[in-house]
């Protein structure tokens, strides 16, 4: 229903508009080009689809101001790292107070016991360890899982992302010889030399028989899962699936790692806690320290005992778990402040109310324009997808993706002061997202669809 000609005309017009309004960003991009690969500190910072990267002057609360001085309402929120708003005052205060009293000492800061108690009370697991990123936390948990079970294999869900953890990059891909979907190491990985399918089994989300089959031989140490898939668009678990996943793991002695890095958007204790699903390992990162590099992983006392035994019985030396800066004092204080004063039940109530109205608004706009698109939500996190029914697995979610349509919509919104996440169509509401911000997003989205559908003429750049 959206003609390719109109789509490229809108996209070209929006690219021209961005260039016209961002001379300073273009200048910074030119200045950075000689010193950073691709001109930016991380290569993926170019994946926003803007003609040049949008450099940031400041981010506070739900707002982000670019180097050209344009203010944007931020629904990307650093892809969850700033889910509680950019630099929440209670956190910024603690960070600046603590910054002059030592950062990393390789010793536990005095915040440690109080932080442990906060984590235990909130997430229902008594024991915790720290990492610097959710990637590392997942990697460490997989190593622990293999150590305590003595099993070599893991199971992932097709379309998953758990950070740059080598083991998880296995997809189900249609074989060239027509054999149907077969496991394959993710083709886009750089420098990959080992065949990851040797130790990683991959099944579709919401496919219980496939999961049970993958676990049946008792060689799987761990299933790593988001309770709602959030990195391939959004895929919600069907009723009973997470409970069945838990039961299948228990029945086969397989550990269940629930990665709540994104689904912490669900509720103060995360999705699993809210739905009564007990993980063996629980991983949280990104927003847990408000965007300061920090992550945590939790487990129960029995698993802690098995971990202690595995470590005690191993030869002395490197465990392969931990980094020098993990558990640093500033990070401890930041997680403590986030849990105590930022990620409060009141903050969640507001975020989720805003996201509910965003979800309803997106559904109305899509319906008004007669588009066969769906809208999904997990707590404060919403997503629109280019398919009539919400996808039930990674394959369906991937099939619904349309890079050029996404790029045009994202750039259109950005040019009207609204940021959504660059890699798919995710929008987060934070504790200071206002109803007017949601309305502004919906107005811009509606105007964008009208233009894409040819209902209003494509204007030349202003
Ligand atoms: C579910 C999930 N887990 C882990 C990670 C890794 O987080 P980080 O990049 O902060 O290590 C991500 C990143 O997007 C994620 O989406």
Topology:
Layout: H1 4-21, H2 23-33, E1 56-60, E2 63-66, E3 71-74, H3 89-99, H4 112-123, E4 127-131, H5 134-149, E5 153-157, E6 170-174, E7 181-185, E8 200-203, H6 208-215, E9 220-225, H7 241-252, E10 255-259, H8 270-274, E11 281-284, E12 295-299, H9 301-313, H10 329-342, H11 345-368, E13 374-378, E14 381-385, H12 394-399, H13 403-415, E15 418-419, E16 426-428, H14 435-452
Parallel strand pairs: 3-15, 5-8, 5-9, 9-10, 10-11
Antiparallel strand pairs: 1-2, 2-3, 4-12, 6-7, 11-12, 13-14, 14-16
Helix pairs in contact: 1-13, 3-10, 4-10, 5-9, 6-7, 11-14
Bound molecules: pyridoxal-5'-phosphate (PLP).
The site of pyridoxal-5'-phosphate (PLP) has 15 residues, from helix 5.
